[in-house]
Amino acid sequence: MTTLTGCPALEVRPAPATRITHEGAAWLTSACTHPRGALAVWEERPATPAVLPCGVAFDVVNVPLVLGRRMLDLLWAEGPGCGPAAVHRGRLLLFAAPGTAHRLPALLAWEEWGADTAAPICHGPGDAVTVPPLVEAPGPSRWLVAPDSRRPRLPGPDTLLWAFLHAARLQVSIFRSADRDANVYDVSRRR
Fold it and tell me: How crowded is residue 24: how many other Cβ atoms within 10 Å of its Cβ?
């Protein structure tokens, strides 16, 4: 993070990139067995989404869109920021440090996060994800935070656990409907 000149206590985060750069595309394709060939093919068809393997350069945490947007907002407003993030078919894909797909479910279980509530889908070694095209194109995919370097900041399982729990608890408190059979008493006029 950078600081303003003369104000070392005031931190300034750069705004997230919304367009993928050549360096960002090179980082993404570094997950492939033949990165240069994969990048060349993708650059020939920049309006086409790519399918990339997880577990080498990155893992991906896949969450419902509304919950994911809350997570992103929390990571940027109160946390350390976020790595690349994309929307694909109504879900948010958060790119994370390798190993997150293995560790995050264990941390959620430790937090006693119930199976009856929406848990993130974690993609790690042996999985592949569809990522948005290099250029903006109509379709079900787009970058919210595009990769713009060969070494993007990738949150780990602890950071994503914090963001997920805070965002999920906020969502539950906002959207939970009152029990219609509950006895509700007006105590505002008590003496």
Answer: 20
Q: Which two tokens stand for residue 140?
A: 């079900």
Number of Cβ within 10 Å of residue 43's Cβ equals 12
Inter-CA distances, 59 with 2, 43, 90, 167, 185, Å: 27, 23, 19, 20, 50
CA distance 78 to 170: 14
Token readout for 30 is: 């570094």
* Rounded Cα–Cα distance for residues 37 and 51 (Å): 14
User: For residue 84, which phi and psi values (nearest 5 degrees)?
Assistant: -55, 145
Mapping DSSP to helix (H, G, I), strand (E, B) and coil, where does residue 91 land?
strand
End-to-end CA separation in angstroms for the chain: 55
pLDDT for residue 181: 53
What lies within 8 Å, CB to CB, of 148 at 6+ separation is 17, 19, 20, 21, 23, 24
Q: 130-179, pLDDT tens digit by residue?
A: 999 999 888 888 999 999 999 999 999 999 999 999 998 875 544 444 45
pLDDT (tens digit, 9 = 90+) per residue, 69-78? Answer: 999 999 989 8
